[in-house]
């Protein structure tokens, strides 16, 4: 999501409402590698293995322990990309094993760009869908000054601006033709820095990392593919985002409750039931978070996917050995 955008807009005490509509780019993606710049939240969850297996091709083995695998979601706001500026939510079902490596598997990808959706489907083999990202930002002033802030004020480093706690609500609505289906509601909280010094410290260290993933086996791209996202950014741990389901009473839903019954999207324009893939994707989002990482000053280079031979599947899953 757009953390830089949050800092700029939250300077106002008033509530800010944004509707992120579909964006278009006539130039196309061009040749790889594809470069994306912006910011993101990468949140890791413990996902029930039975939920993750619904998305994993049969030839893959799921990396699991005690009935759970490592999944979660990647929520990004790209200010620059081959498709222009857009938002993206990647729902990660879990980790799969195909010797000699293990990689993440995306259950569903929601993007606010038609071009990004088409490229993800055809070129990268992703289960991409067009969606609208509606955001609300509110600044809530804190009631006390911490000891560290008091010390900074005493030595003359305080700017005189009160610190505030910022809240962003993101409603993700999947668009299919003329119908719209609310998928999930994500609530994020962060501190809006009042000091340049504090802003620099809270951004975290500069890092480089690679996020390898498998994809394919879709109706748009039946091949089994592997691709890497090479990232340079500033990273820090943050409070995990709170996720709720699509319906008006779904804030108390859990992965287990949604996994055992179909949930109606009370705010959908078509009033239809969620399909199985949507329902299970929401189950992944509602699973237990264990770590949240904020990526700022993000530059992501996506390499061209390569076709990989599947490994013979000898069992339902690969269990981790705990000694």
TrEMBL record:
Transmembrane segments: none annotated. One of its GO terms (biological process) is xanthophyll biosynthetic process. Residues 250-259 have a biased composition (Basic and acidic residues). Signal peptide: none annotated. Residues 240-270 are annotated as: Disordered. This is Protein NEOXANTHIN-DEFICIENT 1.
């Amino acid at each position: 999501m757009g953390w830089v955008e949050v800092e700029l807009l939250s300077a106002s005490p008033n509530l800010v409402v944004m509707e992120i509509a579909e964006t278009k780019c006539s130039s196309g993606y061009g040749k790889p590698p594809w470069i994306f710049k912006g910011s993101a939240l990468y949140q890791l969850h413990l996902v029930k293995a039975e939920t993750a297996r619904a998305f994993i091709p049969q030839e893959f083995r799921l990396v699991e322990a005690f009935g759970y695998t490592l999944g979660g979601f990647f929520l990004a706001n790209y200010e620059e990309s081959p498709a222009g500026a857009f938002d993206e939510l990647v729902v990660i079902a879990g980790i799969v094993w195909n010797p000699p490596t293990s990689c993440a598997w995306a259950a569903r990808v929601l993007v606010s760009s038609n071009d990004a959706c088409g490229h993800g489907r055809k070129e990268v083999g992703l289960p991409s869908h067009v969606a609208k990202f509606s955001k609300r930002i509110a600044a809530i002033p804190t009631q006390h000054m911490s000891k560290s802030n008091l010390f900074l004020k005493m030595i003359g480093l305080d700017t005189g601006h009160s610190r505030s706690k910022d809240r962003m609500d993101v409603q993700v609505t999947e668009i299919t033709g003329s119908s719209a289906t609310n998928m999930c509601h994500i609530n994020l909280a962060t501190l809006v820095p009042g000091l340049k010094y504090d802003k620099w410290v809270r951004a975290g260290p500069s890092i480089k990392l690679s996020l390898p993933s498998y994809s394919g086996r879709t109706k748009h791209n039946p091949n089994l593919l592997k691709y890497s996202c090479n990232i340079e950014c500033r990273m820090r741990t943050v409070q995990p985002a709170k996720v709720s389901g699509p319906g008006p009473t779904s804030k108390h839903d859990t992965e287990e409750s949604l996994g055992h019954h179909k949930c109606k999207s009370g705010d959908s324009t078509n009033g239809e039931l969620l399909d199985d893939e949507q329902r299970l994707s929401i189950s992944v989002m509602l699973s237990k978070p264990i770590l949240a990482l904020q990526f700022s000053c993000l530059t992501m280079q996506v390499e061209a996917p390569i076709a990989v031979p599947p490994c013979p599947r000898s069992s339902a899953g690969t269990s981790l050995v705990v000694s």
